[in-house]
Write a structure and sequence with these properties.
This protein is an alpha/beta fold. Helices cover 34% and strands 26% of the residues. The chain starts with a strand and ends in an 11-residue tail after the last helix. Bound molecules: 3-(4-hydroxy-3-methoxyphenyl)-2-propenoic acid (FER).
């Protein structure tokens, strides 16, 4: 494992690169956590290990205001995350050993994966959004962030829950994003993984995204919540199946 920082317009993004034993050329997947998340969360590490076991190098990166990266959580926005993700893609493309590039992200990181996939479609072989929170922009337009309500036409200076506080700029920028356009622009392979008991991002969003994408598969984890608590083995299984190009009746992987 190598630990380092990636420069994103002067912001230092904390990153870790984990490679399979084999140090020859091979695929690499960028892996990003969600809102309030970080790279050591169990579901993130589970995915990293499953990818490594499937022969895929993994570049975990923490976005603005998260983990050990620069920036305050309160000041983070999806625009900053998009800028960060582009810096990480640029970094990954310069790594000499990379043959094929993938991106995977959880929740808000899953939305980021959808947005980045659309912007850098030529760079990716496939993208893997996990419980992607692609309703954040439409919720923000309707005056809701993670269940917290506000007047969508008169954006507050800040919005606070018991465990986090965001600035009005998070909302302002989120309101301008149209995830459906990013879905329409990415024509390559997409694997969506989602628990059917997710009470943060409804499973119906995974079904809708799978329908809208040109070439998507939806791997449903029965009984799993937003972070796949108690279902990490199944999450690892799905990642292994996908990267090995195998079929799985159990998860509805058809290819
Ligand atoms: C929201 C719904 C879901 C939201 C964030 C999420 C910030 C994502 C959570 C996560 O990344 O785990 O309204 O607003």
């Amino acid at each position: 494992m190598k630990e380092f920082y990636i420069n994103s317009d002067g912001i230092r993004l904390h990153a870790k690169l984990d490679r399979p034993d084999d140090t020859s050329k091979g695929p690499l997947c960028i892996l990003v956590h969600g809102f309030t998340g970080h790279m050591e969360e169990e579901h993130i590490v589970t995915v990293q290990k499953a990818m490594n076991e499937a022969g895929v190098s993994v570049l975990r990166a923490e976005m603005y205001g998260h983990g050990k990266s620069d920036g305050e959580f309160r000041e983070h926005t999806l625009y900053k995350w998009v800028t960060n993700a582009l810096a990480v893609v640029g970094y990954a493309k310069k790594l000499g050993f990379v043959t094929e590039l993938y991106m995977c992200g959880h929740s808000q990181g899953g939305l980021l994966t959808m947005l980045t996939g659309a912007m850098c479609a030529d760079d990716f072989k496939a993208i893997v959004p996990l419980s992607p929170a692609w309703m954040i922009p439409e919720n923000a337009r309707e005056g809701i962030v993670l269940g917290n309500k506000f007047d969508s036409e008169h954006i507050p200076e800040k919005l606070a829950s018991e465990s986090w506080e965001i600035s009005g700029d998070y909302i302002r920028t989120a309101q301008t994003i149209h995830a459906e356009e990013s879905i329409a622009r990415f024509k390559k392979k997409v694997l969506i993984v989602h628990g059917d008991e997710d009470d943060i991002v409804p499973f119906s969003y995974a079904e809708k995204a799978a329908e809208l994408y040109n070439d998507a598969e939806l791997a449903a984890i029965h009984g799993a919540d937003h972070c796949f608590t108690g279902h990490l083995d199944e999450l690892a299984d799905i990642i292994s199946f996908f990267f090995a190009g195998r079929v799985s009746d159990r998860y509805g992987l058809m290819k």
